[in-house]
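Regression test case RT-17, inverse folding.

Input:
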């Protein structure tokens, strides 16, 4: 396959506009149509032909980008796979084990690629920390505190009827706002063997949590906490504190802001300039650099036949941790 990869974007909401902006910066990719039940194209590319379903699309295309609510991801993925189209899916992969397994299996059966947008893995200092952990440079890691304390006002949840629901949104801030960082946690440390959690709804009139804490225990003895919230005004930078036998480091918005490791210099080359999207108080994403990185990789995977850098199987792990946090609380 040569030339531009042609995408159909599924959904027309806020995150769809992020992908429109990203693909406008990618030479060998373009969006050729939109699918929306409202027959509406994303506002940043309003002249796209819009269709009510993927089966109705008359424009030739190679792949889809799924930007629908999480609990609906599997529906479009199955439809696209049966058409022989590759699939790039917004996080999380889906909200149930059965749906995720179905997505992964049907993509394999139809020999199409499934990539997932967990772009935080490759943001700022996050890959640097990954390499330090893999090389055992930091010593024994015995404690991690992950905090994703966002704030969303009522207008966020009132903007769409599915928000704050279990069936379609999948839950509250653990599966929504904290999903990227729980994926990062998995990428660094693997899956815990035991999770104990406590969730509550304190500020919003929704059927799922708006604040909660999980305690995770790993096979190597590491004990960690994960806090996720949309109730903590005014919203705070996502923070991961890592404590080891050599000292500690703190990541804030993917940048090492504190470092005290015996015999090791701080490896960061980053600075927080105030323009980094934190997600703390808004869902809007202006900087599409990391999305462009993953889409470029996905386009290359289509053209060369290699696997996407973040596959469906890899992305499923974050959802499994989140589901265990929910199951533990219930």
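Golden output:
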């Amino acid at each position: 396959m040569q030339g531009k990869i042609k995408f159909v974007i599924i959904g027309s909401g806020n995150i769809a506009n992020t992908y429109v902006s990203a693909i406008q910066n990618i030479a060998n990719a373009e969006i050729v149509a939109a699918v929306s039940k409202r027959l509406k194209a994303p506002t940043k590319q309003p002249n796209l032909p819009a269709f009510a379903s993927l089966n109705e699309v008359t424009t030739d295309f190679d792949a889809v980008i799924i930007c629908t609510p999480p609990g609906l991801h599997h529906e479009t993925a199955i439809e696209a796979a049966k058409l022989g189209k590759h699939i790039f899916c917004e996080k999380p992969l889906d909200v149930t084990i059965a749906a995720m397994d179905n997505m992964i299996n049907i993509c394999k059966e139809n020999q199409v690629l499934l990539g997932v947008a967990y772009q935080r893995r490759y943001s700022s200092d996050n890959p640097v920390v990954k390499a330090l952990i893999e090389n055992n440079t930091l010593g024994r890691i015995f404690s991690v505190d992950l905090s994703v304390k966002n704030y969303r006002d009522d207008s966020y949840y009132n903007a769409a009827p599915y928000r704050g629901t279990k069936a379609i949104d999948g839950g509250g801030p653990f599966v929504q706002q904290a999903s990227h960082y729980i994926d990062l946690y998995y990428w660094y440390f693997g899956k815990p063997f035991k999770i104990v959690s406590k969730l509550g709804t304190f500020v919003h009139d929704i059927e799922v949590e708006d604040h909660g804490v999980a305690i995770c225990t790993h096979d190597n003895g590491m004990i960690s906490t994960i806090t996720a919230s949309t109730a903590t005004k005014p919203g705070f930078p996502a923070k991961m504190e890592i404590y080891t036998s050599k000292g500690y480091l703190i990541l804030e918005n993917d940048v090492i802001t504190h470092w005290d490791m015996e015999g090791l210099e701080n490896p960061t080359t980053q600075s927080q300039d105030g323009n980094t999207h934190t997600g703390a108080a808004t869902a809007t994403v202006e900087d599409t650099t990391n999305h462009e990185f993953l889409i470029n990789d996905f386009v290359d995977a289509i053209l060369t036949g290699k696997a996407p850098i973040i596959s469906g199987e890899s992305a499923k792990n974050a959802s499994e941790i989140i589901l265990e946090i929910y199951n533990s609380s219930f």
